Amino acid sequence: MNHDKRFVTDTPLCNLAIKYNMLYICVYQLIRDEIKNQSALGAKLLASIKPKSINTFDIENDEFEE
Fold first, then answer.
1. 12 class by beta-carbon count within 10 Å (0-12 exposed, 13-18 middle, 19+ buried)
2. Is 56 within the bounds of a domain?
3. b/e for 26-53, b at 16 or more Cβ within 10 A?
4. How far apart are CA 40 and CA 47, in angstroms?
5. From CA 25, how far away is CA 29, in angstroms rounded?
6. How far is CA 1 from the centre of its chain?
7. In-domain check, residue 3
8. For residues 17 and 24, is the Cβ–Cβ distance under 8 A?
9. In terms of DSSP H, where are the helices of 20-64?
10. Residue 64, domain member (yes or no)
11. Cα gap 12→37, rounded to integer Å
12. What percent of the chain is modeled with pLDDT above 70?
């Protein structure tokens, strides 16, 4: 199951894995652990993170003056 890390799906997916005798691996948790443990792979993963741009609104052109 591929999902965004913001979604709370880990518990339901773990329950499904238990019910059907399957394995559920959360890649986000594995990546976070590698970075936390400062491993060589964790350093590469940390270096590969790209900054996200923040959308800003042009306050000067606010026609409603909010």
1. exposed
2. no
3. eeeeeeeebbeeeeeebeeeeeeeeeee
4. 11
5. 8
6. 14
7. no
8. yes
9. 27-36, 40-47
10. no
11. 27
12. 70
Helix, strand, coil tally for the chain in percent (to 5):
45, 0, 55
How many other CB atoms are found less than 10 A from the CB of residue 15?
11
Tokens at residue 61, please?
């052109």
Domain span at residue 29 reads 10-48
Average pLDDT, integer, range 7-33: 84
Q: For residue 21, what are its two tokens?
A: 């005798």
39 within some domain: yes
Q: How many domains are contained in the chain?
A: 1
Summarised one tens digit per residue, pLDDT across range 23-48 is: 888 788 888 899 999 999 999 999 99
CA atoms within 13 A on the CB side of 59: 2
Left if phi > 0, otherwise alpha if psi is -120 to 50, otherwise beta: which for 40?
alpha
